[in-house]
Design a protein that fits this description.
By secondary structure, the protein is mainly α. The chain is built from 16 helices and no strands. Helix 8 runs antiparallel to helix 9 and helix 8 packs parallel to helix 10. The two termini are 14 Å apart.
């Protein structure tokens, strides 16, 4: 991640986090008089095509601001944050969660990204973290309450993926010192994934932006002690199959779901780099090489069509800078 690329990503995000339309809602209509309008019910996160993409667009801007504080775009980021993170707007976002029909709103993907955003603001030492805290705590409470209800994990390569939520939420739990959350996630990860062996890598699917195999491994890497993870990983993924090593091909970037595959290449690059700490040399080298191939396949595809542009830069930032 260079300053030039970071500035480009900042301009992309600044151009869409306040772009209200087109908008795809995660909303349950409760009657003919339902007042849903994006900017009315979500006065902070109304842009970027959908709520969760807007959240991680703000995370992207916060990450850029922390890592590249001398960029000219930082002034615009600060002005945006000052206008967005007000007590009144945060209260409105919280109020939406109080709707009985909003129990499953953005679960778990949006929840995890909101916690990731909060952790970034906290690490940066920005006062905006104090303002956003009521919303972050509301989602943290939801996550803690939801974990014991999940008998089975969701292993899809899209938004519902449980392991991806664990990875992002773990970053928040560490930064916020939320030991209750972290303990619950460790227990659930053991329950869901602890006995998994010889991963059957039936991927990619045609609309994936996450690798179920690699996300599970990343979650276990984050939540297990290093020695325990090394043993588990050696049994789970003893080698890197071609289906994982080969970047996905994107046939139509104007199709929002097919464009997910650019995100898959970026999230695989992120995961492979994180997992390339394995002591097994052949697998380590294979992961490093495949990570480079996946990053090269997608890093220049972030901008162009709004179906990818409204979210891909966040995944490119993960691929280039990691979770922390």
């Amino acid at each position: 991640m260079t300053p030039i690329r970071a500035a480009t990503f900042a301009r992309i995000a600044l151009g869409h986090v306040t772009r209200e339309y087109p908008h795809k809602a995660d909303h349950v209509m409760t009657g003919d008089d339902d007042p849903y309008r994006p900017r009315t019910v979500h006065p902070i996160f109304f842009g970027s095509f959908d709520w969760h993409s807007c959240v991680h667009g703000y995370w992207l801007l916060a990450r850029i601001r922390r890592l590249f504080p001398d960029l000219a775009e930082v002034a615009a980021i600060d002005a945006l944050f000052d206008a967005a993170f007000t007590p009144e707007k945060v209260a409105a976002e919280c109020a939406y969660l109080d709707r009985p029909s909003a129990r499953g709103f953005e679960r778990p993907y949006g929840w995890a990204w909101l916690l990731m955003l909060q952790s970034e603001l906290m690490v940066a030492g920005l006062g905006h973290a104090d303002r956003l805290r009521p919303l972050a705590e509301a989602f943290a409470a939801r996550w803690r309450a939801h974990l014991p209800l999940m008998t089975y994990p969701v292993r899809a390569g899209t938004h519902a993926n449980t392991a991806f939520a664990l990875v992002l939420a773990d970053r928040y739990a560490r930064v916020a010192n939320d030991q209750a959350m972290r303990g619950a996630m460790i227990e659930r990860a053991h329950h869901w994934f602890g006995a998994d062996r010889q991963a059957q890598v039936w991927e990619p699917s045609g609309e994936d932006f996450l690798s179920p195999t690699l996300m599970e491994a990343m979650a276990m890497q984050r939540l297990l002690p290093a020695d325990a993870f090394a043993d588990w990983f050696a049994a789970f993924l003893p080698g890197l199959p071609d289906t994982l090593a080969t970047p996905a091909r994107v046939s139509d970037r104007s199709d929002g779901r097919i464009a997910h595959l650019d995100g898959l290449n970026l999230s695989r690059a992120w995961a492979m780099q994180a997992l390339a700490t394995t002591p097994e040399a052949r697998l380590r080298n294979a992961l490093q090489a495949a990570a480079a191939d996946h990053l090269a396949a997608a890093i220049d595809e972030v901008a162009g069509d709004y179906m990818g542009e409204h979210w891909l830069a966040s995944f490119a930032m993960l691929a280039c800078t990691g979770t922390d």
